[in-house]
Amino acid sequence: MTNEIVGYVREQVASSVRRAAAPAAFALIGALFVLFAVAGLFAALFFWLDPDHGPVSASLICAGVALVLAIVAVLPLAFKRSRPAAPPREDDALPRFVNLMAKSAPGLAPRQLILTAAIVGAALILSSRGAGRK
Q1: Which residue range forms the structural domain that includes residue 21?
Q2: Residue 95: inside a domain, yes or no?
Q3: Can you say how many angstroms the Cα of residue 127 is from the centroid of all Cα atoms in its chain?
Q4: CA–CA distance, 94 with 127 (Å, rounded to integer)
Q5: Overall number of domains in the chain
Q6: What tens digit of pLDDT does each residue of 37-91 get?
Q7: Is residue 102 one of the residues assigned to a domain?
Q8: Are residues 15 and 91 in contact, defined by beta-carbon separation less than 8 angstroms?
Q9: Does one domain contain both 65 and 30?
Q10: What is the CA radius of gyration of the chain?
Q11: pTM exceeds 0.90
Q12: Under 8 Å CB-to-CB from 49, ≥6 apart: which residues?
């Protein structure tokens, strides 16, 4: 029974990692390229302003532009509309887990039965915590 549960949990974790790894890697690489592009644009702005305004004024102008861009980027978060929560995804993990526990229960000792009941109860409590939220 323990091997089946461990195998099931490993299968769920592996599939979750596979689903999240590729988009996260592409997002990280994309963010890195955007960072280099923005740094290059600020360097170009500084060197364009330096001959006419001097290095101090050019750096202050670049800092002001960066501050305005940061405020514009954060502005949508300040006025974010609250959307209704997405409906929970129908996942058959809990029924499969309970079914596996029920199949293996007749061959368990009393202590193992108590532990199994505690695990199933904890799983039910954790799965029901998000069900009442809207």
Answers
A1: 1-79
A2: yes
A3: 19
A4: 8
A5: 2
A6: 999 999 999 999 999 999 999 999 999 999 998 888 888 877 877 777 666 666 6
A7: yes
A8: no
A9: yes
A10: 27
A11: no
A12: 57, 58, 61, 62
